[in-house]
Write a structure and sequence with these properties.
six-stranded parallel sheet; 10 helices; 2 domains; Rossmann fold; globular; 46% helix; alpha/beta; DNA polymerase, domain 1; single chain
């Protein structure tokens, strides 16, 4: 029996479900200090946030082999997981998920982060069972900023792209979701609103309590 597509919500993880930037910066600095590299907030926002580690390390350590990039990236992520501790959801997130559940909206996580990081965040938020799917870019042929991760999320949820919403905080994430045809809301945890809108966000908000954000979701999904 054929079923019609329904609206859905697609969430990035870092900087969108939780604000983990500061911990990532500390972890990158500890690992990269041996190479004489200092990662400040500006570097993180514009050269690291939202990108796959292999791409980041190819950019920052072009003289290091690809196999070493992989090892360094794995070391950094293990350090991040050991440091992050308990995580707080971005303000208003859990209220939004409660509303989505009541409205019958399915939702998924779509991330460039490693599987272990994604699982850790969702477990910390006690939300593992709430998400219908977790889309990992490193299991696909293309990562963000390519649209494939979000197109895969839509496919897994049988989502109607014209009525669905993505939540992102990075250039690569907004680019990916926008190219997939989604209505994109940019969370300003990492970048300013003007930058996020220049990459395709329909609107921006500091968190999920924002009234304009809530109106956009209701209008886009048709759920009130």
């Amino acid at each position: 029996m054929l079923t019609s597509s329904e609206p859905c919500l697609l969430f990035d993880i870092d900087g969108t479900l939780v604000d983990t930037d500061k911990v990532h910066i500390v972890a990158f600095n500890e690992i990269l200090s041996r190479f004489g590299i200092d990662v400040d907030e500006e570097t993180y926002r514009h050269r690291i946030s939202g990108r796959m580690n292999n791409d980041v390390l190819a950019d920052l350590l072009p003289h290091v082999s690809v196999s070493d990039h992989i090892k360094i990236g794995q070391e950094k992520e293990a350090l991040f997981r050991s440091m992050v501790g308990d995580m707080e959801p971005l303000a208003g997130l859990m209220d939004l998920l409660d509303w989505a559940d009541a409205a019958g909206l399915r939702y998924a996580a779509v991330t460039n982060a490693p599987k272990e990081n994604a699982e850790l965040v969702l477990q910390s938020l006690q939300a593992t069972e709430r998400f219908s799917a977790v889309i990992l870019s490193d299991e696909l042929d293309h990562a963000k900023p390519h649209p494939l991760p979000y197109l895969t999320g839509l496919s897994r949820l049988d989502g109607d792209v014209t009525r669905s919403v993505a939540f992102e905080d990075s250039k690569s994430g907004v680019t990916s979701a926008s190219a997939a045809g989604l209505g994109v809301i940019g969370l300003t945890t990492s970048l300013d609103g003007a930058t996020l809108q220049s990459f395709g966000a329909y609107l921006t908000a500091p968190d999920y309590h924002d009234e304009e954000l809530r109106r956009f979701i209701k209008d886009r999904t048709g759920k009130h």
